[in-house]
Amino acid sequence: MFVVSDHCWHMEASNDGVTLVRYGDDKTIAPPLALVDLKETHSLGEASCADAEVSDPWGGGHDAWKVGGKMFACVGAVMPGVSVKTDSIETAQMLIDLGVGVKAPYFHRSWVNLPWGTSEEELRHRLAASYKLVRSSLTKKVQAQLDPLE
């Protein structure tokens, strides 16, 4: 759950994708297409994420996207947007300085939160880069069990 303009929202995942739902209201808004594609097709355009899994490890409406058991993206219950891992603290700070993202609370400084207003192209790129980064950090044994990267 997260709060925007005094309204509480949560994400609901189903076979039809991910939907943002306002509590106490039957109105819905569409989530970023990159998250819909990740959920439905396991693809982000430039990267196939066939091995991506989503879970709610802490309860309360968090969507943690993982590959090989390690998280590469997270939609929190309070802060609107998706948090992704970058290759360094410097890259994360550069994205923050440029206004692309903000500090991802509770995460290492190499993570940034991309607000829902982030362009689809940027969101897809950052999700794919985070996926590839985390996947490449897995042990060779775990990587060998995953589908090959396209």
Specify the structural class. Answer: alpha+beta
Helix content: 25-40%
First-to-last CA distance? 34 Å
Uncertain spans: 1-9, 22-31
Topology-level CATH name? Aspartate Aminotransferase, domain 1
Average pLDDT, rounded to a whole number, is: 75
Q: What is the alpha-carbon Rg in Å?
A: 15 Å
The CATH architecture can be given as: Alpha-Beta Complex
Largest sheet: 6 strands, antiparallel
Principal-axes geometry comes out as globular
Count of strand segments: 10
Notes on the protein architecture:
The protein is of the alpha+beta class. It starts with a strand and ends in a 5-residue tail after the last helix. The protein is built from 4 helices and 10 strands. It has a single domain (2-145), classed as Alpha-Beta Complex (Aspartate Aminotransferase, domain 1). A hairpin with a 7-residue loop joins strand 5 and strand 6 (63-67). Strands 5-6-7-8-10-9 form a 6-stranded antiparallel sheet, covered by helices on one side. The protein has a 4-stranded antiparallel sheet with strand order 1-2-3-4, with helices on one face. Residues 1-9 and 22-31 have low confidence and may be disordered. The protein is globular, with a radius of gyration of 15 Å.
